[in-house]
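Loading example: each entry is read as two labelled lines plus one structure line.
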Amino acid sequence: MNHDIIDVKNLTKKFGDFTAVNEISFSVGSGERFAFLGPNGAGKSTTIKMLTTLLAPTSGTILIAGYDPKSRASGVRQSIGIVFQDPSLDEDLTAWENMEIHGVFYGMPRALRRERIHELLDFVDLHNRKDSRVKEFSGGMKRRLEIARGLLHHPRVMFLDEPTLGLDPQTRKRMWQYLQDLNDRESVTVFFTTHYMEEAERVAQRIAIIDHGKIVAIGSVAELKAQTNADSLESAFLALTGSTIREEETSAAARFRTMARAQRRR
Amino acid sequence: MKIVYAMWLRELKKYARNRGRVIGALGQPLLFLLGFGYGFGAVFRAAGKGDYIQFLAPGIIGISIISGSTFNGISLIWDRQFGFLKETLVAPVPRLATMLGRTLGGATTSALQGSIVFAVTFAVGFHPATWAYVPAAMLVMVLIGVVFASMGLMVGSLLADGQGFQQIMNFVLMPVFFLSGALFPLQTMPTVMHWVARINPITYGVDALRVLLIDGGDFSLSLDLSALAIFAALFLALGSRFFERMQI
């Protein structure tokens, strides 16, 4: 691990009297695969939004690849890629056009852009639907397209906010494989959130666990297990965050998640 | 530049793919054209002002461009709700560029909309005084589009949901339509209304169309164009500030 590519100090975000993120500090090394775990409403997405220049922090400092999102937002934006938790496609455009406009936004030369769009659409099994409008796609297809688009340009830091939510196991596996390759070959830093503990355990070199806006633990899987005397990451996670179900976020995705979880419990 | 083009092209594609919007946006101007045209035509003539349709048609074309281009603001709000806005906000491109692309796209589609209405006005008896000026009139339509598309974006960038936008736009647009020179002659307006119309951008847009299409108008073409340019610059400047500050 060389120098830190993400450096966060005393980061806080308040919405009115509600403190979503409370004085968190952490850093991620260049080329590291880092997981950010926490129950619903713990502050994961809010943190990602602040790291990716979409939301201004209430206080604290952030440096991404040496740039401060507050004063050098464009430097940050040039260094990152992001797969959002919520949909962010243009449904009136076709799959190809969504990819194309992304490539243009990220200044990719035409030849490379074309080549990689073909490759990635193939990769997520959407190549034969490349000229269909996204509004005709099923939820799973849209999700796959989001992933493909997120992987189109190869940034220095890749943020993925619950990328595998609603993804079939095949695509999930391929996506991690692709990211792993990217991480190996181009040492792209991978920063992701997930609710699947086995995913975090398999992929991440280091994990931060956030709860009620505070980081409650940070370290490798082995360290987290040792710290809590747990035999799996899941038990370590539950030991650190308790087992009560959290206040709901209002988004449909969040509701869906709780429903899915409740059914799994039954 | 590429970004501006990409966003412009996107607006055009969205417009072409949404036939409901193309047809729906014709409804209001046509209603105005027929309602006012036939309703007030006789009164207008009796007052010694000549053929009301000749006077009204440029006004209706102007109004159709406004309804078309404020749609830009709605499209921005949809982008926020469907999430595509995030994709554009996090991209390493100047927000001014995406805003310009949206503005020009909105201006182009609404000028197209205006041209359709222009063609329809022939059916009710409108005829331009000098055909040679029609291309220039088209350019004025684009300029009107730029003014109102940037206004729509400016308002849209401040709002989180579409319902608020509809209310505000209805609240703003109706006065913009009625307190302007679009439907009634400026000279015969009561003083207060006259002065409100003088600070209303559509007054100048419609006036420029009248200069070019019916050899009429109250102001000189250069005054009209300068006024439109000033409004466009103002809305673009404010809008790009709001875009710069936009958060999710």
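Chain B touches chain A through 24 residues (CB under 8 Å).
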